Amino acid sequence: MRRITLAVIWAFSLIATEASAASTVPPGNRHVEQPAIPGASVRRTNSGKTSFDAKYEKVRDLLASDRALVSKIKKTASAYGIDPIHMIGAIVGEHTFNVDAYDRLQTYYVKAASYAGSSFSFSYDGESIASFVARPEFAECKDKRDSYQLWSCREEIWERDFRGKTVGGTKFPNNRFSAVFFQPFYAGQTFGLGQINPLTALMMTDLVHQKSGYPKLDENDAAGVYKAIMEPDISLAYMAAVLRRAIDDYKQVAGMDISSNPGVTATLFNIGNSLQRARALAGRNAGGATVWPEENYYGWLVNDKLEELKSLL
């Protein structure tokens, strides 16, 4: 009994030490003015004959008018141990800069249903993703404990050994892993309320299964992956998982607590690769200086509108 008690005390003291070691990222934006918005986002918005202000107001009004959706956001955020403002920020950012919001949540369910029964797969140049990751270059990933570690490892090997290179007679594009193998319709695609891409969903599937009970995703079932990222209720769980992982990565790897800065978490939701970015930030701070994570154009808006967005909750 004494051994168990000492073990529990040791475990709690370790958690407390880790928490105290993390530096809390200050609230607000590090940039006085909004960083430049990418040209692709500008062109997409202009082609829709709309504006960023109009798109922001549209998604804000959707959230303000749909209390059932906000209730689902709160419930999901609680399950993943995050403040729901992080999810609000990510939704607002996606629908301001990437896609236009639908007027009603029901439209997202209809769009998700339109993919049910579709036949498509994740592949490149006739090689399925299952066959591709069975190549010997990926052997070091086999012992990874969960889907996040497994697919992060595979993505790193893609960057190191395949991106922009010719391997085994196949020339691979100089593009992201997710764009080459996981976007069977068109490049840059993300769908649904959370705008999650399929590779991100595969990374998060173990955490979502653990916290929300949804079935684990399989890279061989592309339609099942799309159902998860397009069906709003499931998509919310994947959003929360992405944000939870980003907060954990920055605390555990970079020693930075970003949980009180929704602009930073929104930025990481937008640009992805939180683990690799946390490692890079840790390297920049290795000499003893304090370099804070910075928001991009997307996260800047979230922090700039933070009080208004909090009122939606």
How would you portray this structure in words?
The protein has helices spanning 2-21, 39-47, 52-65, 67-79, 84-97, 105-113, 129-132, 147-162, 177-181, 198-212, 222-230, 232-252, 262-271, 274-284, 297-304, 306-311; strands at residues 23-24, 123-124, 127-128, 166-167, 170-171, 256-257. It is mainly alpha-helical and 313 residues long. The longest helix is centred in the C-terminal third of the chain and has 21 residues, at 232-252. The model is unreliable at 1-20 (pLDDT under 50).
Primary descriptors:
313 residues; 6 strands; mainly alpha; globular; two-stranded parallel ribbon; two-stranded antiparallel ribbon; disordered N terminus
What does the secondary structure layout of this molecule look like, with pairings?
Elements: H1 2-21, E1 23-24, H2 39-47, H3 52-65, H4 67-79, H5 84-97, H6 105-113, E2 123-124, E3 127-128, H7 129-132, H8 147-162, E4 166-167, E5 170-171, H9 177-181, H10 198-212, H11 222-230, H12 232-252, E6 256-257, H13 262-271, H14 274-284, H15 297-304, H16 306-311
Parallel strand pairs: 1-6
Antiparallel strand pairs: 2-3, 4-5
Helix pairs in contact: 3-5, 4-5, 4-12, 5-13, 5-15, 6-11, 8-10, 10-12, 11-12, 12-13, 12-14, 13-15
